[in-house]
Amino acid sequence: MSNYYSDHKEIAFHLSHPLMKRIVELKEKGFADANTYPEAPVDFEDAIENYRQVLDLTGDIAANIIAPNSEAVDLEGPHLENGRMIYASKTFENMDATRKAGLYGVTMPRRYGGLNLPSTVFSMLSELISAADASFQNIWSLQSCIETLYEFGSEEQREKYIPRVCQGETMSMDLTEPDAGSDLQRVMLKATFDEKENCWRLNGVKRFITNGDSDIHLVLARSEEGTKDGRGLSMFIYDKRQGGVDVRHIEHKLGIHGSPTCELTYKNAKAELCGSTRLGLIKYVMALMNGARLGIAAQSTGLSQEAYNEALAYAKERAQFGQEIIHFPAVYDMLSRMKAKLDAGRSLLYQTSRLVDVYKALEDIQRDRPLTLEEKQELKQYSRLADAFTPLAKGMTSEYANQNAYDGVSIHGGSGFIMEYKCQRLMRDARIFSIYEGTTQLQVVAAIRYITNGTYLNIIHEMLEREVAADLQPLKERVKAMVETYEQSINLVKEKNNQEVHDFLARRLYDMTGEIVMSLLLLDDATKAPELFSKSAHVYLQMAEENVTGKAAYIKTFDESNLANFRAAEQPND
Questions:
Q1: Which helix (H) or strand (E) holds 238?
Q2: 243: phi > 0 → left, psi -120 to 50 → alpha, else beta; which?
Q3: What is the mean pLDDT of the chain?
Q4: What is the DSSP letter of 209?
């Protein structure tokens, strides 16, 4: 029997990162839970072994239940009955298997029934499930919404809702509306306080809500009458048991068919305020979105792995002109790039996850006791690093998933256009990754300040100080040359002193940033495990060098008067 965890040693490699020791130490708070919970680890090695066991169990379920069900889920999809969403039949099987395995409340403390696992391990679990079926990963991974409730809700709310999620109840985040997509400041779903019932009431419409008929919803709504911007928005908890919300429509989508995308009508629905009023968008949604973006980076990585697996298997079997097509340069060039992007994206995903783990664990400790000065500095450092890395991870991995899925179809040739082959579904599923929870363009907007203020350059220079294996030293020297080119490009853009030019060229700087950071991460990985990553390090760096050089040339020769030519595309020729 196959296992999506043990079959890919590259995933387990990331459990051996030196920062994992600090993460476990913080997450387990001195291993105090071992005195109360028999399943809690007693030391670092015990914790890592626990993680491996959970990953191995999930890898088995992913390979032998979720993956075999994926085709039937894609064909059937969810459907609407009397204002309720009903999952595809095989989705219920997937949910039953993951519930019986205890794969809910993954990051929540044990006192609420959770597993108390780090975000890094949650990302690994998400990757495994996404490789089996990205649409089911959407449903399963939305359990991470509970982290926002844990961080900002009251203790009464934690005790009320977290155990339910740990037992397998589903969640959703109800943010977007027909007139409020990326611009969430325009949210108009109305929240009014009911003095008689001592509760809030929600009225309005939400659209494009993933898993929209879930058990527990986090809802962004306008609580301050007369406001029109983000300062009038608050976060609410809606419990499906209370009633008042119906599913009006389920979207018919290009891909991720098993993941229900719903339009919801709120009619005097009873809700609880989560946290404080007015902070819904500027604080709580930001926390929600950062978690969701990391989840999509994991989803993208899982699908990239599956696209590569399918393409490699087909190339080994398909013969043309008297030999298997894997021997053709045009094919093995695509395959090697797919694998390099996969390994690079995975390294970026888990680096980001580790950064998130450190600062979130310190924030959690802060709820119990004051942090030391050193811990406060550590929290500030890792929070800033996580904020910088998250838009890179979401944008780059989602773009790579699309590219790998596309190349996977190309390697299949005409067969890739036939619905019987999995690669076509992977391509359809991947397309949404670079769109939802903030398009790649919005990830560029989030990242650009870290480019222009030198944050990424400082990170890159620190990474360049690390030792690499002797045989990788020539690659490191080439990265240094890329960094010089990159820095020159940043300065050229800044010297333009033109905001429209900055915005126009930002995507190129963003891509250069990601490619250089991932080149350095892969050099680290290849130094520690050459048998796993040396080939990808060589291929990826060659590719990154090509891309960085090309983008730098574009920036160097760019004349702001050219913007008129691009704007002209808005108007038809006379």
A1: strand 233-239
A2: left
A3: 96
A4: E
